[in-house]
Design a protein that fits this description.
With 226 residues, the chain is an alpha/beta fold. The chain contains 6 helices and 9 strands. It has a single domain, classed as 3-Layer(aba) Sandwich (Rossmann fold). Helix content is 32%, strand content 24%. The longest helix has 19 residues.
Amino acid sequence: MNESNLTNLEKLHKKLEKHVENQIKEWDSFVYAADNGFYQGFDEIKINGCRPTELRFERYQIKQYLSKDKTALDIGCNCGFLTTHLAKFLKHIDGVEINPYLTNIGIDTKEYLEIKNLDFHNLSFEKFETDKKYDIIFSLANDNTIDGRTEFTFIEYLTKIQNLLKSNGLLMWETVSMDTYDPELFDPKRKIIEKSFNLLEERMVKSEYPVNVPERRFLVLQKKSN
């Protein structure tokens, strides 16, 4: 098909697929869902992925915590499809992602959907700096990544989150895959978390990736007042 005859959505797909192709060729770290194309799926733009965005949002059951007067940060946002979906329910959201190919997918999608209250930042969480204080921070399977690029200790990671949150701000936490079924891995983290956060909700949520981890543990936490 001639490029001029493609629909705008088809043109977007070609751009996003090119980013995926370049990532596999050029990115020198682990590529999530390399055999499937996209780690995150997004029904709104008809992209299939290992973790479907709209279903994830429903499973988390967090809509009651979101509003148009709140700001949020999504740490390690991958291709940004979930971040983009969350923007619909917030005043503003920032997505931080170290992988430039994934960041470009997020930017192209944001521009296609004409979303103005969302910014992507192509750098590690360790290097991310801002004067903002957020109402909500999302740490979704990100506190220890298998690509080997995590530099923070767990305490350093959590401390930075605390410093970026407003008083009584919320932390939406999803366990990394290996923590979900191993209390010896997650319980020490939980003890550290509960020193600074109150647990509001906890549930197991279905997860399609990786296939040997069919569920993740999801927690809604509130920063304790000083």
